[in-house]
Amino acid sequence: MRATTTEGREFDLKQDTVDRLKTRLQGPVFLPGDVGYEESRTVWNAMIDRKPAVVARCLGSADVLACVEFARENDILLCIKGGGHNIAGLATADGGLMVDMSLMRGVWVDPQREIAHAQGGCLLSDLDRETQVHGLASVLGFVSLTGIAGLSLGGGFGYLTRRWGWTSDNILGMNVVTADARLVRASSDENTDLFWGLRGGGGNFGVVTGIDYALFPVGPEVVGGLVAWPASEAPGVLDLYRSLAEAAPPELTLVAIMRPAPPAPWLPKEMHGKPIVALLACYSGKPEEGEKTVAAIKSFGKPVGDVLVRRPYTQLQSLLDATQPKGRRYYWKSEYLSRVDPALCAKATEHAAKIRSPHSAVILFQIGGALNQVGEEHSPVGNRDARYVLNIAGSWEQASDDAASMQWARNAWNDMKTFSTGGTYVNFLTEDEGPERIQAALGKGLARLGKVKAKWDPQNMFRTNRNIKPS
Ligand SMILES: Cc1cc2nc3c(=O)[nH]c(=O)nc-3n(C[C@H](O)[C@H](O)[C@H](O)COP(=O)(O)OP(=O)(O)OC[C@H]3O[C@@H](n4cnc5c(N)ncnc54)[C@H](O)[C@@H]3O)c2cc1C
Asked: H-helix or E-strand containing 260?
């Protein structure tokens, strides 16, 4: 079968070479045509259609070590699949050996020390489910099917970010299989340069087989959910958003969403497909306080739907899942903002009105708080001046709509990027965003990341990512 070297040359990967890989692994190995191959090779974004030469579903660190050794010995391009949710499809590569982590989803919680150890193939839901047994949570993202590894290695933000910072700020240590096929520990005591690089530098330095997270008391009940109004109410609702967000205690996170109403049971049928503006809220402190804090949202104007209620934290963590299924086509443009300017709100409303797909959205995430109180040099994720994330999220079903939906996102972005801090989120970059956007995402840390890369991966074996050249 056709395979690709690290440098991108095609070669013939012999069946007996693949057989030797099989004998070195405990987990299954798939070739094109095998049951399991399609599931592994496809990712969340259907715009990405790549075909690895071989997929290894690893069962533990020993399998990962064997894959890295095999890739070195046979000079085959290596790619790593965590949750497969990266919009640019960084988990998969034509002709590569895919290290598929989807069987490594164990979580161990130490409730006394408030620490969780999660294997590198976990999804957010795996970690939340186990930590919530103890009334604890780590800082994770908004959609529960996302992989913890890709999210954490690029920064990570969600409902708890305002209280405790980027996900990567709350990592205590990682187990990593390095380019020279060793299993090492990276923490504030061991291999500190590697530990620094991993907290923002993505999959550039090795395969992460386990992550230790600091946990915090959260839930089991929080006040969370959505209130929606017709899009005609957007000016008032966005004004409310701006003023509430600016004054919000760290326990409260607010997200504004403008999009056609999804066919959700909590929205009246006659609204489905019609443009709405919604506020998504999470109050992660005491629910009684939360109910008072969100009262101003619930009593504003005449909502067409309201599911902002006390609910289990794990339920809130998966509330948006159905709106983001695997297999649709996606194209995003994003920027960090230091504030929500009224002129930005006007532009957001204008571009939301131009959405033609039933699934696209303009979203404002609030993230300001703890992450702003840490120095820029703390980790390469940087962007310590970011207080909001603007995400222009194109989402549609048919390839014939690619051009129109992508153009909508680009037009909106061109019109709104003047409000940016100049920084952008590395994990939201699409396939067509190149070096200048990586510079915008990781700029201040790039030189130091190059040095860490030169030490830990001088041959640039781990290059199926937002690649950092060894320097
Ligand atoms: C629907 C949706 C919602 C999202 N919501 C949020 C959010 O709320 N907050 C947020 O911060 N981000 C969010 N993101 C972005 C998310 O952080 C990135 O897409 C991230 O890359 C996903 O991680 P993954 O493991 O699923 O990615 P994959 O596509 O599997 O991998 C992405 C990159 O990470 C590397 N990688 C994966 N696993 C490992 C590993 N074990 N060791 C080393 N490298 C590895 C891969 O090589 C690849 O380069 C969201 C994305 C989607 C699609």
From this structure: strand 252-260
Distance CA 22, CA 16 (A): 10
* 3-class SS of residue 357: coil
Q: Which of 61, 427, 433, 462 to mutate to test the pocket of ligand 1 (most atoms within 8 A of CB)?
A: 427
d(CA 248, CA 245): 5
Instruction: Kindly give, in sequence order, each residue whose CB lies less than 8 Å from that of residue 35, ignoring residues fewer than 6 positions away.
Output: none
DSSP 3-state of 27 = coil
Please tell me the predicted confidence (pLDDT) of residue 1. 83
Ligand 1 pocket residue status of 81, Cβ below 6 Å:
yes
pLDDT tens digit sequence for 44-64? 999 999 999 999 999 999 999
Helices (H), 234-305: 234-247, 287-293, 295-298
Token pair of 56 as six digits: 């290894």
pLDDT-above-90 percentage for the chain? 99
- Average pLDDT on 297-318 reads 98
The DSSP code for 142 is: S
pTM listed for this prediction: 0.98
Rounded to the nearest angstrom, the distance between the alpha carbon of 44 and the centre of ligand 1 is 10
Q: What percent of the chain has pLDDT over 70?
A: 100
Q: Give me the mean pLDDT over the 358-384 stretch.
A: 97
Cβ atoms < 10 Å from Cβ of 51: 17
